[in-house]
Task: structure prediction
Amino acid sequence: MAYEAEYDVVIVGGGHNGLTSACYLAAEGKRVIVVEALESLGGMCSSGAFIPEAPEHTIHPCSLDLMSLRVHPMMPQELQLQRHGFRQEEVNPGYVYCHPDGNTLVFGRSPEQTAKEIRRYSDSDADAFLQLMKAVYAFIDMAVPQMRVDPACFNLGAKLKSLAVLLKNRHLKPEIMALISSPAYSSIMERFEHPVIQSALCALLGAAGPITAEATGVYFALLGFLHKYGIGRAIGGMQSIADALEARLKELGGEVRVSTRVEEIVSHNKTIRGVRLADGSLLKAKAVISSIHPKHALEMVSTGELDRGTLTKVALAPANAHGASPLKVDLALSGQVDYRKLEEQRPDNLSLRRSVLLIGTVEGVLDNFRCAARGEVSPKPYLWMTAPTAMDPSQAPEGQDVAYLYPVAMPVKPKEGWDQIRATVAQQVIDQAAEYMNGLKKYEIGRRIEAAPDLASRLSVHNGCVVHIDTATTRSGTMRPASGLGGDTLPVSGLFLGGAGSHPGGGVNGMPGRIAAGRVKRFLKKIS
Result:
């Protein structure tokens, strides 16, 4: 084969994880190139003028909040992204639950602040919440050290940290085990009696998936992360993260190619040789990191190099396996929305402009997932929504807004097909959101709608699953994305997974890319 160029490492996919891997390896002096099929970098960590009628309005087609980056802040610190324009500010209050009766519940910056809010509705629920948070905090304090390291390594330091937390909280062990092994829904309903509190927690945890399934108590980690680390926003939009990573990579001597599709991950005799691009050219490499969905990555490996069992295993790894996926509706607005009706019912007249509002009831959350599994759209509202411009006015012309609407559980494959119902369902979502977000319909300039198949097509994400592989204890550590595929070696030597489908999973934090870079560094040292 005649290769166009030679590298130590080729990274397939220019999302934030791929760029993270590239930066860490370039910092070690490795010759690295990132190859991205789209015309710009960022993947799900992107933002831009995506509504033609509103070229000055910044739209976030996927991620917006920076929770997991605050849990795992190593990547921006170690890669010096602040020097390259990345800046985040905390959103406070971050999440606010809104009940159909007009009552609201603010998830505070600490368990005590949230308990004070809960006490407006029920003293016993407030006490139960504080007791619950002891178990949640103990759980995440044990889990976070393990999330930050390569599960294929021994990690003595991380294990000792987790063990110390376990010993300190050994009296809570039965409660912790019961919590994480049970359905999140059951744990909520058995502990809390007031419908506002029940609904608020169901609406929060439902963002991770159906809360009635076994062992979904791990979703309570969201509650712990929210209180312990808070929520951040990238000033200037999420694209600033990808832009900062690109700038850092080029500073380190790395290369980037956009609008360049990889057609084949070239392997011979179970050993990586490089990649073949869509135009037929070849890039030679000692190692390849794929930050795209693991199913698509392994299917790109040269024919015959991976056995049928391996390909089947990754193809069947759960990706929105429950049948539900978020729908994304973005609106560019000519004015600013407000939440006066909600704020006037609060005793403190707290401004909700910057917050993410959680809309839905217990039954609404359950019904949305039930309907999605049947290929139907629930008539009951369950969505998250916010105006990113309230936090960062630079994302729209002065005095104008952008609305970010995120119905959590829509059908991946509706019976009628998304082409038939996309516009109708989007209008339903806008109508539901307008009940809380005053001015939403009045000020609309244009809208952007993206359902699961749209996301799957645009970003090559299997079933439109934003976390690549569904979040579950059985798909964590070396079991993510599947058994035999989550360690530091794959059946093809020199191939590594470094996206959301590998440990520790989805979210904007760069940890999968950071871990993959460490694995490649060890591999290159071994073969040198």
